[in-house]
Amino acid sequence: MKPSHWLVVGAVTLVTLSLWAWFNRPLEEPLWPDRVMGFAFAPYRADQDPQKGVHPSEAQIDEDLALLSGKTHAVRSYTVEGVMASIPKLAHKHNINVMVGGWIDSDDAKNEAEVNRLIKTVNANAQNVVRVIVGNESILHDRLPVEKLIGYLKKVRSSVNAPVSTAEPWHIWLKYPELVKHTDFIAVHMLPYWEGIAQEKAIDYIVMRMNELREAYPKKPIVIGEVGWPSDGRTRIDAKATQADQATFLRRFLARANKEKYVYYVIEAFDQPWKANSLERGVGSYWGVYNADRQPKFPFHAPIVSIPQWYVLAGASMFVGLLAITLLFLDSHGMRKRGRFFLAILSYGIASLAVYVVYDYSQQYLTGGAMIFGLLLGLGMIGVIVVLLAEAHEWAEAAWVQARRRDLKRPEVEDESQLPWVSIHVPAYNEPPDMMIHTLDSLARLNYPNFEVLVIDNNTKDPAIWQPVRDHCAKLGDRFRFFHEDPLAGFKAGALNFAMHQTDPRAEVIAVIDSDYLVNGDWLYELAPHFQKPEIAIVQAPQDYHDQEESLFKSMCYAEYRGFFYIGMVTRNERNAIIQHGTMTMVRRSVLEDVGGWAEWCITEDAELGLRIFEKGYQALYVPKSYGRGVMPDTFIDFKKQRFRWAYGAVRIMRAHIKELLGVRETSLSWGQRYHFLAGWMPWVADGLNFGFNIIALAWSLAMIIGPQFADAPSVVFSILPLILFAFKILKHLHLYYTNVGIRPMQSLAAAIAGLSLTHTISMAIMQGFFGGEKPFFRTPKKAEGHRFWHALSEARTETILMLSFWIAAFGIKLRVGFDFFDTRVWVGVLLVQSMPYAITLLMAAISGLPAKRLPVPEPHATSADNYPTPASESNAT
């Protein structure tokens, strides 16, 4: 890279490092006390799960109590089933008191057995059992009616000497005062995270609720049976679950509890990975002060840092970002500083996000399935990032260049008699004769000395269609020759190969236009001289159209087409990597013959020919100036079929040339050319992959609706990336259409709508291109009758079904799951964004069904290139 490039990188690196440091600045909080009053105690290890009958041994429980010895006065247990009944006895060895719990469920027989064990355990360990809990949130979760729970409370209170209660959140105690009458104290759970309270407000919230309980039951002692905060999990309304939030909450609470003289049990001593499959789902695993390996999760006395290893992550993001920048800055010597700053900021931002996502995922307790799922999501994240960086690179190269590196000016010609002889080929199949006659008349008015016109009508059956064209060619003189061939295989490529064999021996250049094109008189005069340079094999002018005012539908299509020809093709031309398209193209005859002519196996024979010519080491030149205009598809279904053919053909070309594009097979392709062909088709490939994502998203959403207790929304760190990419592409589109194409914001919006309406069509084309067989050539009809409104809507029936599926999924999640978790809200946002292209397709279909007006065919002189401004990127790049 140039020294100026390193200055940009250095500046952005410094800013990025400063941001990492700022977000991880140390926070001073109250110190952890020498001993906490109590811990909720579930001694399960990472590989143990009570739901599967895998429990800790007495030795393991003893190890955990030994670790807590001297750090707490008491622990709280939740059941006396099996080995858990030994907790009081083992705790006594370590001078730890116990609030013993009995688990009450909906099974009466099990409850009776549990109550009997509870009474026995309490009476056998009177020396250190200080309280007894009968049931844990049994009323909250509707495990049994209040009356039945009161019966169990009566039985236990009459059988033991220790104080007895049940454990419920604050609102349950306020709702059921009759429950209070049958307890010796109130064991209340204060878990503001589950109520969506921001960590910064949580302590005051607990104090407020405690005061409410004291006011309601002034004579009843209150014990906080659970109080805590998770270190990982989903954001619930305003409550974020991070390690820093957990540390801050607990250190502040313990200081406030000491001041308020609260009796409390911190939930909990150790993380419980098995709870990932419980009602608490992912967040339930992360309430421990110690992790599953029995290591403290945060400092007890030192300042709190959000990510203690932030400098390692910052270094990793610097490395990944620098790698991306190095690749993006290759061959970018013409880019302005603002373009390099744009790419550098984006690279470091995306790298930092990716590194954080990997770090965050690595901090979780992952099962084998979760690891596989995370790997798949990671691959998807990499794909989104690659597409995002490719889009960013095109944006920077289109908007922020100092000057174009290739000379597009017409070479001086000393002797015009030496201009190359040009053979113009016009393939046709079943085209309206009046339209073709106008095309031929425009060719007859070319201001060029040496040319011929060959019209090849292949396989048109009706003589009334092709004979008037033949007769008109005869009227135009010897320059015009007409061929009607039936049968003739190979579709358009077959017709063009046939024309090659009929071409005048003097012809050095072969030009191709579609049968609907009205060419400007200076077309050949301005572009043919470029062939004086022997390395030039292709000279290409943009496709353009003259019927954009015929309807709103065509106006929108017209705006959408222009983006490719005045943004994508302009940047590709800088590295000699344009997509050759089969009209307004000129190719050196000797090169065309050398590469074997047009490929009859490919339905996008023009783009495939251009790639083969590049593989031979020749150059192409793109002049972004209109020299001819045709007609657009008249109906939405034809618009879709045309784009299907382009996308499907691109995939088949990639499949046929993948070794050349990847450098496996030796060719003369430069790495810049390979990049543009692969990166240029990447958004289409991404659309194909996105369809798979959509099907998975709908299936996932269905699982959330059917079993909300088992299926969570995907983590926001994964959901947010598709939203970022969508927003980024929209911003890029609006900016470049304004600066480089030179159209107004409303026209740019219309172009975006037209482009998005093709998303599903492109998806299907990509998938069928990769996994399907060969598709026949589809000719875009000219002068076709537009469909009536309801018929036009039926052309979007598949997209409408998908749109409704996404809307129903979003509404179903709102009803069944709710919006408590931020991840769920983001996921619903993803569903709605993913539905937008399908909704827009329906809108585009409706617009295409509106009445159109027929315009008179313009005279050829109206197609003058002077009527089309040079794109802004050529004239005043900033």
Automatic annotation (TrEMBL):
Segments crossing the lipid bilayer: 310-329, 341-359, 365-390, 691-710, 716-737, 749-771, 800-819, 826-847
Glycosyltransferase 2-like domain segment(s):
509-700
Q: Where would you find this protein in the cell?
A: Membrane
Return the protein name.
Answer: Glycosyltransferase 2-like domain-containing protein
The family database entries (Gene3D superfamilies) matched by this protein are listed as: Glycosidases, Spore Coat Polysaccharide Biosynthesis Protein SpsA, Chain A
Which keywords are on file for this protein? Glycosyltransferase, Membrane, Transferase, Transmembrane, Transmembrane helix
> What is the protein's species of origin?
Candidatus Magnetaquiglobus chichijimensis
Q: What's a Pfam family this protein contains?
A: Glyco_trans_2_3
KW Transferase (keyword) present = yes
What membrane topology was assigned to this protein in its record? Multi-pass membrane protein
